[in-house]
Amino acid sequence: MLVNQERPRHGVACSACTRPLGTSYVRHVSTQRLYCGYDCYHRYQQTTMATLWPYRSSLEAITVLAAISTWSCMMQMGALSRSLTEAYLRAHDLLTPEGGDG
User: Fold this and answer.
1) 3: which residues sit within 8 A by CB, 6+ positions away?
2) What is the pTM of this model?
3) CB atoms < 10 A from the CB of 16, how many?
4) H-helix or E-strand containing 38?
């Protein structure tokens, strides 16, 4: 939110560059952080996003997401194969006569 013609409290500084705020400044609505202008706000948001998402190239990000997706799929397939094997063995035990081998 852009704030015009309203002085902040005395001694309040920009959250990004620590310069004193003037009569026009930017206030982030959800965090209530104050910035001296849109440039500082934008620069701080880019720095924050780079910290949260450290992958520089889209190829690297796609590779990481594909590896996570593949691992998740393999875990689900492993659980399914174990369940099917257990069900088969239980059914085989029920169908096999007690004295025979089947």
Assistant:
1) 24, 25, 26, 27
2) 0.43
3) 20
4) helix 38-52
Q: Which of 1, 23, 2 is nearest to 12 (CA)?
A: 23
Distance CA 87, CA 90 (A): 5
How many other CB atoms sit within 10 Å of the CB of residue 5? Answer: 6
Could you tell me if 11 and 28 are in contact, meaning their C-beta atoms sit under 8 angstroms apart? no
Overall size of the chain counted in residues? 102
Grade residue 95 by pLDDT with cuts at 50, 70 and 90: confident
How many CA within 13 A on the CB side of residue 61? 8
pLDDT confidence tier of residue 85, bands split at 50, 70 and 90: very high
Q: Which amino acid is at 43?
A: R
Which segments within 1-102 are labelled E, that is strand? 2-3, 25-27, 34-35
Rounded distance between C-alpha atoms, residue 8 and residue 15, angstroms: 13
Average pLDDT over residues 41-46: 78
